[in-house]
């Protein structure tokens, strides 16, 4: 009997909008209100910080310093509500959600900065929030309360203050879920992206648990430069080089823009209307490339997640690789990080698993036939030739087979598996578990060749959530 459980996930639905010019002005006014609140609150936080620092240098005691300005959203909102009559006497013209959008962004930015400084946050250091400029920032406003709904015709949405907005495409997928009661709108954001307006609904969605078509099957996916992905089944997924195809158009539009009179911060020169127009065209061309790329990735990841029970990928150091400028364009183009992100949530929706081999697993240098590990393999060598068993295979196909084999060695197959310590794992979906490769069962390292980085063959396979 098939077990079908329901689980709640956060899912976004994004639709293009057809706004009238009056509606565009209304959205821009709301986005402007968000920016005003953000900049006012940021200035206030800075002023209080500077004031306290100055008072300390005069030797004023901690108790007598100017009172701190809280960084939480409620604290910022209280300060804004007390001041809005003076700062923005026009505030009644905009939904309070507009000001909330700006204050919420600032509260999160301040928290990220503070966490980063206190080493409570992984990743690159986060700088202190900056003021938002009308010219540089993307206009956006988010609604969390009030009348947010999709009209029964599925071609219009209703948002607070902005009223009834026409959609460019049908919202039937979301409407069906809302009508069936399997989705609830948490927030709606209107923003401009690449010269077009979008509304995106963040929803809490009840999804029925599904099973992949082949729950016991494992596929290794090697992300390459020549191909977007090479599967351990031998299938080659061509690179969606939309960026290359559109490169000539992008270059031409870039030349156009560079011949126009752009802004100059040194002299304070404003950009010309023709420069603005050329840049808008360039932006639309980039947005089209991004849309095509996203579409290609979604099709691949959906297909893999629906078919295979276990998908194994490599943990690529994408930010490290992006610093290598020659590879950078290709890697950015293929959107590795996006592929990983999509596979992670789609495998969990489909009842499968995504396993990530650690960064030091020599998937390219290991022979998928006999397990011998080469000490050196130049990136230019596109074919793997084994000197021990004589295997000759495409480099990426060899790596993909090793990744698939790694999942089988460490975890067996099927939804109920044993981890490296012999414990039963019933629901491997939600909890990331590090599984050690058992010495002796490893195929790598058997021949006595030295694994790279001086590491042993205890490679970690992590099940992503
Ligand atoms: Zn071999």
**Order of helical and strand elements:** EHHHEEEEHEEEEEHHHEHHHEEEHEEEE
Q: Low-confidence stretches at least 5 residues in length (pLDDT < 50)? A: 411-458
Helix fraction?
Answer: 25-40%
Largest sheet: 7 strands, antiparallel
- Tally the helices: 11
Distance between the termini: 26 Å
Give the strand content: 15-25%
Kindly report the average pLDDT value.
80
What hetero molecules are bound to the protein chains? Answer: zinc ion
From the alpha-carbon coordinates, what is the Rg to the nearest angstrom?
27 Å
> What characteristic shape results from the CA principal axes?
globular
Secondary structural class: alpha+beta
Strand order of the largest sheet: 2-6-7-1-5-4-3
- Number of E-state strands: 18
Write a brief caption for the model.
By secondary structure, this protein is of the alpha+beta class.
List keywords for this structure.
465 residues, alpha+beta, seven-stranded mixed β-sheet, 11 helices, binds zinc ion
Word description of this protein:
It is a single chain. The longest helix is centred in the N-terminal third of the chain and has 37 residues. The protein starts with 5 loop residues before the first strand and ends with a strand. Helix 6 packs antiparallel against helix 7 and helix 7 packs across helix 10. The protein is α+β, with helices and mostly antiparallel strands. About 10% of the residues have low confidence. The chain has a seven-stranded antiparallel β-sheet with strand order 2-6-7-1-5-4-3. The chain has a seven-stranded mixed β-sheet with strand order 10-9-8-11-12-18-17. Helix content is 39%, strand content 21%. Zinc ion (ZN) binds next to loops.
